[in-house]
Specification:
Length: 293
């Protein structure tokens, strides 16, 4: 079997057996294609531990950051482990190779003032503005991922009951409550803005582009970035509103386990990173207002 076929077999395993998201599959695919570019058509059985350093140099020459190199090695380790378990290889060359540990990067949420300004930026007198207003309110109000907002369909909106059914990573579903402001913004967009974007088309998706098609992940990221820049916010990412939702919930006294469920995290340790941000916020409040800081 060709090396490319083995990679495809592994990616299909991740998709079907492991239920990983499409974004994760694409990331693994890029990393493994890069490895195949390095290794060419040589048999994978010839890749030994002593070749790892050379591969690291290859990745470094491509200008990859330390974190990107680490991710590429994780993808490669999973690939070789799969080949061993499935009988396509007699050993795992990365089995005893230790990878450097990278502490999780702390999220950089918006302040309450920045959030308020961002949410008020869209011009609600236009279909695009109505869409953007509803989109931003929904993402901040629920903490959903950019990909989840892009894939959100009309049938998932239960506005009368006050919740949204979100299909997250691994096709896992979760129910997320919807606040009144987000609900009002969505209702107005659905009644006044979306029909004008839809024109004569039919689409099951909630958020549409000017051509009446599904708003892509890249399109949503551009929307967030554009309004952030209008507010003078430079440090922004596609996940900023999600980080902000989680941080503001914890600052308001929400239970960590509840935030984990709302975000759709499989492991509570993923959610715990936000407690570090909240602790720093509390320390700042103490420093500013305690009579003996």
């Amino acid at each position: 079997m060709r090396n490319e076929d083995l990679v495809d077999l592994y990616l299909n395993h991740l998709r079907v057996e492991k239920g990983l998201s499409q974004n994760t599959i694409e990331a693994y695919s890029r990393d493994l294609r890069t490895f195949l570019e390095f290794w060419s058509d040589k048999p994978l059985q010839e890749f030994q531990r002593n070749k790892v350093a050379k591969y690291l140099s290859f990745l470094g020459e491509r200008g990859l950051s330390a974190r990107s190199v680490h991710r590429a090695l994780v993808a490669l380790r999973g690939f070789f482990r799969f080949l061993l378990l499935e009988g396509h290889s007699e050993e795992d060359p990365l089995e005893d190779v230790s990878f450097p540990f990278f502490p999780k990067k702390l999220p950089n949420p918006l302040t309450f003032e920045q959030t308020k300004e961002l949410l008020e930026k869209p011009d609600s007198s236009t279909p695009i503005g109505l869409r953007d207003s509803a989109l931003l309110e929904l993402m901040y109000g629920t903490g959903i991922r950019v990909s989840e907002a892009s894939e959100l369909q009309l049938e998932a909106l239960q506005l009368e009951l006050g919740f949204v059914l979100i299909r997250g990573k691994g096709d896992k579903e979760r129910i997320v409550p919807l606040g009144e402001i987000a609900k009002e913004k969505l209702l107005r967009y659905l009644s006044e803005g979306r029909p004008k974007l839809l024109k004569d088309r039919a689409s099951p998706y909630v958020f549409l582009n000017p051509q009446g098609r599904k708003l892509s992940r890249q399109g949503i990221w551009k929307i967030i970035k554009r309004y952030a820049l209008l507010c003078g916010i430079r440090d922004i990412s596609p996940h900023t509103l999600r980080h902000t939702f989680a941080t503001h919930m914890l600052q308001g006294g929400a239970d960590l386990r509840a935030v984990q469920i709302l975000l759709g995290h499989a492991d509570i340790s993923t959610t715990q990173v936000y407690t570090s941000v909240t602790i720093e916020y509390l320390k700042e409040i103490h420093r500013r207002f305690h009579p003996r800081p």
